[in-house]
Design a protein that fits this description.
Shape: elongated
Structural class: mainly beta
Order of helices and strands: HEEEEEEEEEEEEEEEEEEEEE
Number of helices: 1
Largest sheet: 6 strands, antiparallel
CATH class of the largest domain: Mainly Beta
Number of strands: 21
CATH topology of the largest domain: Immunoglobulin-like
Distance between the termini: 91 Å
Helix content: under 10%
Amino acid sequence: MTYFKKYIIIFVVFVFAFIIILQITMAAEVRVELTLDINPGELTLTSSSTAVFAEVTASGVNESAAGSIENVNVIDTRGTHIGWTATMTSTHFTTMSEVKFLSENNYTGTNTDVDFIGTYDGLDGVLDPARRFLVEITQAGTVGTAAVFRWTDPLGNETTGVLTDTSVSLSNGISVTFANTNYAVGDKWFVLVDVLPYTGLTVNPGDIGVNSGSLYGITNGLSGTLTGSGINSDAFSLMTADSFTGSGSYYQEVDLNLIIHNNSLSGLFTAQANITVS
């Protein structure tokens, strides 16, 4: 091979190499930013709607009744991991008897002509034996125009000179209703009321289960008795998620035990529990 041909081959190889390098150096680049926005969910709470205590027979000694709130479930999908606390409050357990008609005094009506409605708040405390709301007609006539009554609360406080009406508020959450009829002086009606205070209710938060998430940093509240002096008790801790924990779904059963005072009124006692999470 002549030197001339050899140089031509080298030149051709060089040109091809240059073209390849040029193509490589001329390649373009585009950077694409990929984004995904995850919207926060909610902090929610569910539980069973009722908690029924075991039946108890009235007696002359203190007793107790057991019940439970099943499946208190906290779901945190906020994605913040800032933690939360589930708490419970309760009203007093109260009951009210059927209306009793004390005296006719030339009155020909029935017990249904006067009724007591509402939910007794129990703020008078335990009154042993059970006390009553008493209504007595002091001026005869028709409802809303002539008939006037007086009434006595469970502590024995008397209010006089009250005009009858279709509904008249008394106290402690109780109202009295009068039918559209004539009433005679001396006609009397009453209902008995009783209370099992929430201060006699022991709350025992059960072990916490997990549907999703981690139990790290999740703790159940300590067993104890409700405290307070108002219609609703102080808040009682059921379960808590520390900061940087709590995302997921968590559940527990809350066991309850209620003290029943001696000589309590028979009947259905009801209370309203309120569970919140924040």
